[in-house]
Design a protein that fits this description.
Two copies of one chain form a homodimer. Chain A is α/β, with parallel strands linked by helices. Chain A has three domains: 4-47, Orthogonal Bundle (434 Repressor (Amino-terminal Domain)), CATH 1.10.260.40; 58-154 and 288-316, Rossmann fold (3-Layer(aba) Sandwich); 157-286, Response regulator (Rossmann fold). Chain A has twelve helices and twelve strands. In chain A, the strands form three sheets. Chain A has a six-stranded parallel sheet with strand order 2-1-3-4-5-11, sandwiched between helices. Chain A has a four-stranded parallel sheet with strand order 7-6-8-9, sandwiched between helices. A two-stranded antiparallel sheet of chain A has the order 10-12. Chain A starts with a helix and ends in a 10-residue tail after the last strand. In chain A, 52% of the residues are buried. Chains A and B meet through α4, α5, β2, α6 and α11 of A and α4, α5, β2, α6 and α11 of B. β2 (91-96) of chain A pairs antiparallel with β2 of chain B. Chains A, B: Residues 2-56 form the HTH lacI-type domain. Chains A, B: GO terms for molecular function: DNA-binding transcription factor activity; transcription cis-regulatory region binding. Chains A, B: Keywords: DNA-binding, Transcription, Transcription regulation.
Chain lengths: 331, 331
């Protein structure tokens, strides 16, 4: 097997210079870099992550664990998280947990990951406990579960309270809601905050006007068809997130229901499509990009040293963003 | 260091049984699996990808190389590609090439990847040649470049020809276009196919009504503001892909220009948002999910054996999908 020693000999440089040249170190001259690269190419030498992991005892791969990779929400998380990990010298590996009661903990460990970001763990998941048992560092993303660990979360209260005041001022008396799944901390927490805020301003939310479903477009489309198709449906539809609200807006278009003339629709997340002129969704915003970068920093800092330090929780505040999908109550 | 031998001793099973139990092999009983997992946990044993790579001589990580990870197009590619790779026992690592003239080839090799899928390589990129020099297998995704290699591509002709006939039948005489970048094979090929098809049906495309830009929303928004804001703008706007067309549709909404009353707008890709009731974009469709899966199969089959076999090119056909953004010419 070709080693960096062989490359050093052929290029006429020291062995450490080979590594620095191939890693594009700024202190190595362009001429030396080229000489080393040519020698490496001539010999077919590839410095491998495997070799590096053996010599340093750890890898630089961070796993992002999600259940539903085709949920568009993650496309806005992956780019900044990948970018921040790259800045910190780490790579991003995607892992889905189709069935997280299965051997996912073993799989995560066998992948040789340095640490993982858990983005879809349900509150009853055994995964955090198993990772803790096996000594694999992890960070909760927009979630928390039983085991104490670093977390980046959203604090919905400020945005949700402002939205409740705004819709009460617009004359709305009764709301319908498509909430998230019961077994996620995010779903439960947003539902709790929304119910409290609506109650505070005297807007009623009857049990027959509430459905629950996944945080996706289809859930919103289906839920809105169910809730808005009825006689006497409320003038306000609260959605678990923007994707659900986009599904609901499209259902309204399919049902030929005027938004906001007959029903006002509200999301949560402020994803880029919500700002489109064609959409103009009223929503609750927070800095998702900053949150994705923070998760990357937390996991790398945990991996690189302070494993025994107390768990950190970084909470991102929310604001109410009124746009075209909220109007005065028609009643 | 704890090895599987230690786990086998503590659990009272053979060494191969440890590996099979931790990989959830169906032939191992639930009781044995539990015994092995408990022993592994008690000893803090983690079978690592590093160890496996050393014993087998190769990894199971496939890199997906893109320039602009925040381009929404990739979110529809990543999920099926990840899923198909998983089915074949491989993982997906995301790699961006912000500056592909830089040390990206070395970086790809140093990541210990088994192979890579190149999704954004420009025709003048040196990356394919460098990967070939270093013996790293790769597959072009929706692109080709100078070096002969496996590729999954789209054949635009059938869809584009049908679209040209449809708009000619609707009375359109002059088109404007927002085409893709000159230095990508996809941009060049679609532009060539579109120009030929329009000429065939007698629709003119004047040089002053053509702009070029990246395959993204902002390019469409900016291009449409430039092209549609003029007096005497054509009645038809052809876009390089759906994201560009979505940007153009939003620009039309911002400019209060009726679609399709004053201008008909056409995309390419048929991404899910194009099917929304709020959008209903007329577009050219192909099976992007099947193409993403095919790229995964090609790279794994190349990695696992037939490295010397001739390069394979799998082309996906296109169809014309008329929706609400195309109407009769107003003139």
């Amino acid at each position: 097997m070709i080693t960096s020693k062989d490359v050093a000999r052929l290029a006429g440089v020291s062995q450490p210079t080979v590594s620095r040249a191939l890693n594009d170190h700024p202190k190595v001259s362009a001429a030396t870099k080229q000489k080393v690269r040519e020698a490496a190419r001539a010999l077919g030498y590839a410095p491998s992550a495997v070799g590096r992991a053996l010599s340093t005892g750890r890898t630089t791969r961070v796993g992002l664990v999600v259940t539903d990779l085709d949920n568009q929400f993650y496309s806005y998380v992956i780019a900044p998280m990948h970018d921040e990990l790259g800045r910190l010298g780490h790579e991003l590996v995607l892992v889905t947990e189709a069935d997280e009661t299965g051997p996912i903990a073993e799989r995560l460990i066998s992948l040789g990951l340095a640490g993982v970001v858990l983005a879809t763990t349900t509150v009853d998941s055994i995964l955090p406990a198993r990772l803790q048992d096996r000594g694999m560092p992890f960070v909760y993303f927009n979630r928390v579960a039983g085991v104490e660990a670093d977390a980046v979360v959203v604090d919905p209260s400020a945005g949700v309270e402002a939205l409740a005041r705004a819709v009460a001022d617009a004359g709305h008396k009764r709301a319908a809601a498509i909430f998230g799944p019961h077994n996620t901390s995010t779903g439960e927490e947003r539902e709790r905050a929304m119910r409290a805020a609506l109650e505070e301003v005297g807007i009623s939310l009857s049990q027959r006007d509430v459905v629950h479903g996944p945080f996706d477009f289809e859930s919103g489309r289906r839920g809105a068809h169910e809730l808005l198709g009825r006689d006497g449906a409320p003038s306000l539809l609260i959605c678990a997130n923007d994707l659900v609200a986009l599904g609901a807006l499209n259902a309204a278009a399919e049902l030929d229901i005027d938004v906001p003339g007959r029903v006002s629709i509200i999301g949560f997340d402020d994803l880029p499509p919500s700002r489109w002129a064609l959409v103009q969704l009223s929503t609750v915003a927070y800095d998702l990009e900053a949150m994705s970068r923070e998760a990357a920093r937390l996991i790398v800092s945990r991996v690189q040293g302070d494993r025994g330090a107390p768990a950190r929780r970084v909470a991102f505040g929310t604001t109410w963003v009124p746009r075209a999908t909220v109007g005065p109550s028609p009643r």
